[in-house]
Specification:
About 25% of the residues lie in helices and about 15% in strands. By secondary structure, the chain is of the alpha/beta class. It has a seven-stranded mixed sheet, with helices on both faces. β6, α5 and β7 form a beta-alpha-beta unit. α1 crosses α2.
């Protein structure tokens, strides 16, 4: 029977910094400051050329555990809150022997995270794709065992990346709590994708519904010139009539050479982002009130997970990444 290290200990160590390490030191010649651009924010949109990836940017952490073998690499793609969204679970991946690379796309672009989903995802997609291309050149990691982890907006982005990466290098994509609202989903995936939803995840959904049921008007989607062909081709601000496919409806239609490459799992005692904190069931209005502002429309805004729920999500990710341990 396959089981994992004491995952609660790993989670505690990562959260308290016991599993922390210094990032890999890079030669100044490897820096790419020319990739950093200065787009502007207009309302909830981001206009102008978006930044690419600078491995020397202050928001980047590239960590490689010591050992005789080159480890697999997981590239973490954050959500609407920035790098902090993916920090805790990424530390747990490192504690389980994986090399990790995490960044903040908003800080790369010097814009606040409070923009529309589509613009968040455009920034994330451009940086993450260049992170992957850069990772292929790194001698410290096994470039034939690269994985992506994405949370929330980042979860939607890594699904799009699954359409363009090389299966010789990327072994899989773990997408936690994606949304169709943003740049949409691709029509084809080339590598295995595991989509994870907490059973209590109602963030962005109408009260009483769940995140996998979200189907907003097409005008909430923006077609990205960088992203692969997908649902935004027919359902976006350019084609605004109708409503977008839910994540489950898209999963039924997506093209893949092997249907086993796409799996959806649901987790007990988990809402939006298992590792965003303790499980908290709330509406958007309740969340806003706790922060001292108001939201006009009521919807779900439940976040976090119980210790058991967090352990279940981490276990599933480690198994998917092929780093589970025998006792």
């Amino acid at each position: 029977m396959m089981i994992f290290k004491p995952l609660l200990w790993v989670f505690f160590a990562a959260a308290t910094g016991a599993a922390s390490a210094q990032s890999v030191a890079l030669d100044p010649g490897e820096c790419k400051p020319e990739k950093i651009k200065r787009p502007t924010v207009v309302g909830i949109s981001v206009q102008g050329e978006l930044s690419g990836f600078d491995p020397c940017h202050a928001s980047v952490s590239f960590k490689v555990p010591t050992g005789s073998k080159k480890p697999p690499l997981v590239i973490a793609v954050h959500g609407g809150g920035g790098r902090v969204d993916a920090e805790t679970i990424t530390n747990a991946f490192y504690a389980n022997g994986m090399a990790t690379l995490i960044f903040d796309a908003y800080k790369h672009n010097s814009v606040p995270p409070r923009t529309g989903n589509a613009y968040r995802q455009m920034m994330l997609y451009k940086v993450a794709l260049q992170v992957y291309q850069w990772a292929l050149t790194r001698p410290e990691v096994d470039v034939e065992r690269i994985y992506f982890y994405g949370i929330s907006n980042g979860a939607s982005v890594v699904i799009n990346l699954a359409s363009v990466v090389d299966p010789k290098h990327v072994r899989g994509v773990f997408s936690e709590a994606p949304t169709p609202v943003g740049i949409g989903y691709p029509w084809e995936i080339r590598v295995p994708v595991l989509i994870a939803f907490g059973k209590e995840d109602d963030l962005g959904a109408r009260v009483g519904q769940r995140r996998w049921m979200i189907s907003d008007p097409c005008r909430f989607t923006v077609k990205s010139s960088d992203a692969p062909s997908g649902t935004a081709d027919q359902c976006s601000q350019s084609n605004p009539s109708g409503t977008m496919l839910t994540t489950l409806q898209w999963a039924e239609k997506v093209k893949t050479s092997d249907k086993s490459k796409l799996e959806i799992q649901y987790f007990e005692e988990v809402a939006h982002g298992a590792f965003l904190g303790p499980l908290k069931i709330q509406t958007a209005q309740q969340f806003a009130a706790s922060k001292g502002f108001q939201m006009p429309a009521d919807m779900g805004w439940s976040e976090g997970g119980s210790p058991a729920g967090q352990q279940a999500v981490l276990s599933a990710a480690l198994k998917f990444f092929g780093v589970s341990k025998q006792e």
